[in-house]
Amino acid sequence: MERPVKDGILYVQHCKFGKRSWRKMRAQLFAASPSGVARMEKFDVRDDGTALEKTSLRRCARRVIRLSDCISVGPAGTESCPRATAAFYLTTTEKSYLLASEQRDEWITQLCQLAFQGAKETMQSTAVTQPGPAVPMEENSLYSSRQDLTEFPVLVVQTDAATRCGLHGHYLLSALPQSLTLKDPQSRQPLLTWPYPFLRKFGQDQTVFSFEAGRRSDSGEGTFTFSTPRASELCGAVSAAIACQQQGKEPPDP
């Protein structure tokens, strides 16, 4: 019988008709094994935090998130968490989740280990067992595609400007050669664009990237703030693009 790596209470944020609310869940993390894939299983719980009966669980309540589908995990800045909890996000290829827990850092650590380190170990073991090419080759740990270096998963931190523009939840923020562009995380369609000449100032602090847009931008003037574990990379990409515009050059390939 599988034993969970971590078991505890989580809160999941839901948004219905523009109103956000938190639902209490019980979550269990399982490592990959012969019995199953690495995953998070979520169950409905009663108000007192106890799980529903096993018969009820079999009928309806269990929901599974495959950690092989995980894209990013990290702390989220929100002021509306349930009491004594802190928020974090879990982004997969299918959906983005905003979660809260009293043990946020522990959940983030365990999720990262199962979702990313486990995948890395699987790739390494596969490379050993499968026949390789005639010439020995090694993976370049510094390799990244251009998209990896210019497109960043972000979570909106509510500000007056973000509220006015109807922004909430997860997006992709692209530091393009001419502008910052906010995209839908599923369709990747542009939603808002801020040309660099219309940014009054920008900066980052640990896992937060923020900028102040001028009134000539599509969004109107105001401060926009996003939570992302790659805040320093995002800020660096914006700085490089602006420097190239000032010099009248095209940004170099990353």
Automatic annotation (TrEMBL):
Gene3D superfamilies: Pleckstrin-homology domain (PH domain)/Phosphotyrosine-binding domain (PTB) (2.30.29.30). Keywords: Phosphoprotein. This is DOK3 protein. Belongs to the DOK family. Type A subfamily. The keyword Protease does not apply. One of its GO terms (cellular component) is cytoplasm. Residues 148-252 form the IRS-type PTB domain. CDD domains: PTB_DOK1_DOK2_DOK3 (cd01203). The gene is Dok3. It comes from the Eukaryota. InterPro entries: Docking_Protein_DOK (IPR050996), Dok1/2/3_PTB (IPR037751), IRS_PTB (IPR002404), PH-like_dom_sf (IPR011993), PH_domain (IPR001849). One of its GO terms (biological process) is cell surface receptor protein tyrosine kinase signaling pathway. The keyword Transport does not apply.
